[in-house]
Each structure stands twice: as structure tokens, then as C-alpha cells.
Amino acid sequence: MRPFRAAPWATSLKATSFAGSAILIAVGYALAYAVPTGTRAPYAESFGALIAWIPPLVGAAALLFVVRGYELAPGELRVRRLLWSTRIPLAGLAEARVDPQAMTGSMRLFGNGGLFSFTGLFRSRTLGSYRAFVTDPAHAVVLRTAGRAVIVSPADPQAFVEAAQALA
Fold first, then answer.
1. 115, CA 20 to 30 Å: which among 11, 27, 56, 125?
2. How far apart are CA 80 and CA 67, in angstroms?
3. In terms of pLDDT, which residue wins out, 44 or 60?
4. Which three-class secondary structure state does DSSP give residue 139?
5. pLDDT score for 45
6. Global confidence as pTM
7. Are 69 and 6 contacting, i.e. CB atoms less than 8 angstroms apart?
């Protein structure tokens, strides 16, 4: 198995992560004080406390999905997360190429668009539907098999492509 570090976070990812975290913390703080103490409504304070924890928990959940790196093995890509790895089958790898413009004009179908990573299902005119595990779109590498496309962003895209082609 050959490890690769993820690309350093793009400025847009840093800004989105900082702003998103600040907003989640501020909303959680505001919600904590939205329900007055001493209310006579049954469970109002407990419900208010529970609701106040939801925004910070969303941020913590997004943090768990951060992309830390990648590992290439014969027929498989592993995306290293904070506590686990996501396995992507690469059997029948047809294409591996560096493409800094791969995510340009893409639409997010499901996933995270900038809170600690760009991950999930996306769609573009050129690639169709694809999965992304990206920290910097400028370091994008497109991997295509017969049935799917995956975009990753290793720190050294060219070395990653060479390793993927050698393993294919």
C-alpha cells in the first residue's frame, strides 16, 4: 500500500471552514439563550439545551469526515479520514489524470461543500456524476473506472497518477 498526503487546504476551504465553524458556534450559543430559564412549559429548558447542541455537533460530525490522505493498493483506493478510511474499488482503472479544472462548474448533489473538505457526490457536464474527496481543487486527480469517476487531491498529483497507473 502506497500512502499519499492530502493537498494542503485551499484558501477557500480554510475560509469556508472558519466561517462555517463560527456560524455553528454562534447559532448554538444563541439557541442556548433563546429559551428563558424558569419557564413553566414542560421540558422547554431541556428541549432548548438539546437544540443548542445540534449546530456544534454538526461541525464535529463534519470534522470526522476531513480528508487526511490517500493510500493506493492494487485495485483499491483508501481515503484516510480522521478515525477511519473509506475504500473505493479501482478495479479496471481506465484513466488517471491530473486536472486542476475537474471540479469547475460542478454541482453538489449530496455531501459537504467546504466544511473541512469537499466530499460527496457531485455532477459536472464533463465528468457526469462523480465522488469527490478533495482538500484543494487545484490539486485534483481524476480516476475513472468503467462505472464511476472519483476526484482526489493529493499533495503531489503527478506522483499519485504515476502510482495509480503502475498499480492498474
1. 125
2. 6
3. 60
4. helix
5. 75
6. 0.87
7. yes
Helix %, strand %, coil % of the chain (to 5): 35, 30, 35
Q: Which residues contact 140 (CB under 8 A, 6 or more apart)?
A: 98, 99, 100, 101, 102, 103, 134, 151, 152, 153, 157
Instruction: Give the dihedral of Cα atoms 148, 111, 154, 160; nearest 10 deg.
Output: -10
Strand pairing class (128-134; 149-152): parallel
Task: Map residue 48 onto helix, strand or coil.
Answer: helix
CA gap 166, 73 in Å, rounded: 10
In the chain, how many H helices and how many E strands?
3, 10
Strand order in the sheet with 141-144: 95-98, 141-144, 149-152, 128-134, 118-124, 107-113
Residue 141 grid cell: 486527480
User: How many C-alpha atoms does 22 have within 13 Å on its Cβ side?
Assistant: 6
Q: Cβ–Cβ contacts within 10 Å for residue 130, how many? A: 22
